[in-house]
Amino acid sequence: MRHGRWRFLAGALVPALVLHVVFVLSPYAQAFYLSLTDWTGVAGEAHFVGARNYARLGGDSLFLDAVRNNAVMLVVVPLVTIGIGLFLASMMHLGGRGGRRGIAGSGAYQIVYFFPQLLSLVVIAVLWGFVYNPNTGLLNGGLRAIGLGGLAQSWLASPALALIAVMAVLVWSSVGFYVVLFSAAIDGIPRELFEAALLDGAGGWATFRKVTLPLVRETVQVAFVYLGIAALDAFAVVQVMTVGPGGPDGATEVIGLSLYRNAFTYGKFGYASAMGVALFFATLTLAVLALRAGRKERLELA
């Protein structure tokens, strides 16, 4: 009986582990190795160059622009998305009178907010490219229609506005999912806590700050990790929407785009792999720091 159980476990786990090693761990190992070579992607052999590719990253001005832009997106996109998502979810659950009744039609609002999740990022980027069109776009057309034509801009051609326009698209495409996620987290809070806060005379802001936010903190931390990963990528939106892509003047350059260009345009697969490894460790560091911060808070509360 005992040996049969172990055979069953081995039969269930070994195929999955083999697939994981072949299709997940093996590509990672290959990328780490290629980052130490000068492979062009088509040559039959790759010459070992050590850490030379990583040393080049520090002197690559376009890559440094990409790091700066990703850092800005890493701060802005998660904070704005989580802020809007929490606000909308709270209004749908706490906006009504009498505890956690919320506003009328909150279920319909969740469906509307979630709609962008049904579209791929490429489709979203194409649609917003039309919206931002300086001549025929919906945004400038709307501004002109209400007499604010002086505010019309070439949104994706201005170095000062292009990154903001891209981040707005990322927020718009993501916020609906997190509205639903935070709504589910708020649904898990016992109703008695909201009723007790109401009896104590707590207003909407006090209830959110003292009851809702502490009890959905773990969900917020998970959302920050996922949004941070999305902000560190942002390749599809930048590739489709922006001038260059990555322009103007590197204003929307991101690490994923630099990696793609060096690999498939310049044939520098070794150098591109070094960028990929750098992005991997940046993402890993973000996840570890976020999860450690959450664990520390749980220990302090305990």
What oligomeric state is this? single chain
Our count of domains comes out at: 1
Annotation field: number of helices: 13
The coarse overall form would be: globular
Q: Compute the CA-based radius of gyration.
A: 24 Å
Low-confidence stretches: none
Report mean pLDDT, rounded to a whole number. 87
What is the strand content?
A: under 5%
The CATH superfamily label reads: MetI-like
What gap, in angstroms, lies between the N and C termini? 42 Å
Class, according to the CATH hierarchy? Mainly Alpha
CATH fold-type name: MetI-like fold
Keywords: Cell membrane, Membrane, Transmembrane, Transmembrane helix, Transport
Main location: membrane
Subcellular location: Cell membrane
Transmembrane segments: 71-90, 111-131, 160-181, 219-241, 269-291
General description of the model:
- 71% of the residues lie in helices and 0% in strands.
- The chain has helices at residues 2-34, 52-57, 61-94, 106-114, 121-131, 138-145, 162-187, 191-199, 204-215, 217-233, 235-241, 255-264, 269-301.
- By secondary structure, it is mainly α.
- It contains 13 helices and no strands.
- It has a single domain (64-293), classed as MetI-like (MetI-like fold), CATH 1.10.3720.10.
Element layout with pairings:
Blueprint: H1 2-34, H2 52-57, H3 61-94, H4 106-114, H5 121-131, H6 138-145, H7 162-187, H8 191-199, H9 204-215, H10 217-233, H11 235-241, H12 255-264, H13 269-301
Helix pairs in contact: 3-7, 3-10, 4-7, 5-11, 7-10, 10-13, 12-13
